[in-house]
Write a structure and sequence with these properties.
With 184 residues, the chain is of the alpha+beta class. It contains six helices and nine strands.
C-alpha cells in the first residue's frame, strides 16, 4: 500500500480548490443564514419544494425531545399537516464558515402554537424557545442542511440564571493569612 505524504494531500486540496469558485466567507455566511430563515418558514407555509431543496437527502435530524427524523419524515409530516405552527421565528443566528463547502449556523428559535400529531391523532404542543445548530454542506453547487439539532430552552432555568448573584463581602471571622502577617 503506497504511503501518501502530507505535501501530496495539500497539493490535491489546492488543485481541488483551484477548480472551484473563489472562496468568499461573507457570501457563504449570507447564503446559509438566508437558507436557515427560509427553512424555518417551511412548516408554516408548507413549502415542500423548499424543504426538498434545503434538506440533504441524508440529513440527520435530532429534535428537542431527543427523537430523530429523516427528510422523508419531514416531507410526510409537512405534506400531511401532521406538524403545524403559527410562527417559527429565528433570532440570534450566527454563521461560522468552516471552509468553501461547509458552514454551521447556531441560534435561537421560537415556535408559536406548534403542534405535532401523534400516531393516535392526539396533538403534542411543540411551542417554545429553542437553541439550534444546523450544519450546511455545499453539494453539487447547492447549499443544504446535513445535520440539525435543537434543544428546548427551559424557562425556569433561564429565570434562575437571571437572578442576581450574591455580592462578595468579607466574613467577620476571616483573618489574614499567616504568611501575610509575617514581617521580613
Amino acid at each position: 500500500m503506497p504511503v501518501r505524504s502530507a505535501g501530496h494531500e495539500s497539493k490535491r486540496w489546492a488543485e481541488c480548490l483551484a477548480t472551484k469558485e473563489p472562496f468568499n466567507p461573507a457570501a457563504i455566511e449570507a447564503e446559509v443564514l438566508r437558507l436557515d430563515r427560509e427553512w424555518a418558514n417551511v412548516i408554516k407555509t408548507r413549502d415542500l419544494d423548499a424543504l426538498r431543496r434545503i434538506e440533504a437527502d441524508d440529513i440527520i435530524l435530532t429534535y428537542a425531545d431527543g427523537t430523530t427524523g429523516t427528510k422523508a419524515d419531514e416531507i410526510r409530516d409537512v405534506e400531511s399537516g401532521n406538524v403545524t405552527v403559527d410562527a417559527f421565528e429565528v433570532s440570534e443566528a450566527k454563521a461560522t464558515v468552516l471552509g468553501p463547502e461547509s458552514a454551521v449556523v447556531t441560534g435561537r428559535s421560537v415556535i408559536k402554537n406548534g403542534k405535532v400529531k401523534r400516531p393516535d391523532g392526539k396533538p403534542i404542543d411543540i411551542s417554545g424557545e429553542f437553541r439550534f445548530t444546523d450544519v450546511f454542506a455545499k453539494r453539487n453547487g447547492t447549499w443544504q442542511v446535513v445535520i440539525s439539532q435543537a434543544t428546548r430552552i427551559d424557562p425556569e432555568a433561564l429565570k434562575a440564571m437571571a437572578k442576581p448573584s450574591p455580592t462578595a463581602s468579607a466574613s467577620p471571622t476571616a483573618s489574614a493569612s499567616p504568611t501575610a502577617s509575617k514581617s521580613p
